[in-house]
Amino acid sequence: MGSLGLKPIDTKTKIGPKMGVNTANGQKKNTVVVTEPEQEPASPATRLFHTKSLNCYIIAILGCTTKINRDVIKKGLESTLVNHPRFSSISVVDEKKGARKWVKTTVNVEDHLVCPDLDPDMDSPDEFLENYTSSLTTTPLDMTKPLWEVHILNVKTSEADGVGILKLHHSIGDGISIISLILACTRKASDPEALPTIPSSNKKEKKDKAGCFSRFCYYVWFSFMLFWNTIVDVVMFLATIMFLKDTDTPMKGGAEVGDSPKRLVHRTISLDDMKLVKNALNLTINDVVMGMAQAGFSRYLNRRYGNKKGKGSSKTNNLPNNIRLRGSIVFNIRPSTGIRALVEMMEKRSKAKWGNEIGYVLTRLPISLPDNPLDYIRQAKTIIDRKKLSLESRFSFRAAKLF
């Protein structure tokens, strides 16, 4: 979606009613300057995210190994998050011009902290957490306040002793910027003054011993593949908008699926197991995650089609031929802002890059039952590598911004 394009917010002034003020020479000066609230026009992405058909929120769940101290969270929010321009402004519509804009306001953190009184010995805390989180998807935010809330649930689940839920309107920013901002609001437990560190890539550039000719050939090949893949992807993107549809499967929702209530269910998997596979096959975590998704979809559909045929065995291939199933992958097309820049934004209102700067690519999800489960991950790597060699994400971002 289009960038929110955060710019320095200027405080506008206007001349107020005339008043008689005596000056040193006895003359009267008849002007008084009145300060107006800081404001900024809303970007196309903001206006789009506030339409009735696309009024969406971001909900993030964070589990803690200890009970959450409400007073500590409140103090931390007052010194960090509320100083951010988007978290201290409300979205209003100009009655005269009909245009939406961000208007600076005073933030009362108490109005944004929700701490329900819970029974610590409840029977099913995990189910309660899922029900509570799902209910947040149907409860709109108060538009007269900055569009964010923090819910503190001090209930012991199977994975945490305390849970914090952040709910905010998607017009504030995209997932990457929000994750970076949350990290910028935290500090190391070993050093309360130090910012958290983010792992960096250890890949080293390979030295090309073959010389300039091989580099020239590589750049020619790279440019040709980038051009060709982009053309093919853009054509497929436009075809999908106009007529190209996926196969009707038990996973495909109906026309009104967007308006139906949602339920958030999660399953925790071992990151160490994923790293083991990643390192063994020399891949990335994204390759492993996408391969796991393909495996899950394939086995789920095989079971559903098997139930229709009266063959519930997962070992039998019940899948129809040539299933077209596609998903969207979100690409962050913003240069990495860095945690330090976001800290300075909250402290000094720097010009750190902010907003919704994400591009979408459509990708096929092969549905099959290979003998070797690792084939799912190899297929995923081939697909992702192919999408990286394309400008489809840039095209979708620019198209959405233009639209």
UniProtKB/TrEMBL annotation:
Catalytic activity: an acyl-CoA + a 1,2-diacyl-sn-glycerol = a triacyl-sn-glycerol + CoA; a long chain fatty alcohol + a fatty acyl-CoA = a long-chain alcohol wax ester + CoA
Organism the protein comes from: Capsicum annuum
UniProt cross-references to InterPro entries, sorted A to Z: CAT-like_dom_sf, O-acyltransferase_WSD1-like, O-acyltransferase_WSD1_C, O-acyltransferase_WSD1_N
GO cellular component term, pick one: plasma membrane
UniProt GO molecular function: diacylglycerol O-acyltransferase activity; long-chain-alcohol O-fatty-acyltransferase activity; O-acyltransferase activity
Domain of life: Eukaryota
Protein name as it appears in the record: Uncharacterized protein
Domain O-acyltransferase WSD1-like N-terminal: 129-289
Residue ranges crossing the lipid bilayer per the database entry: 218-244
Family: In the N-terminal section; belongs to the long-chain O-acyltransferase family.
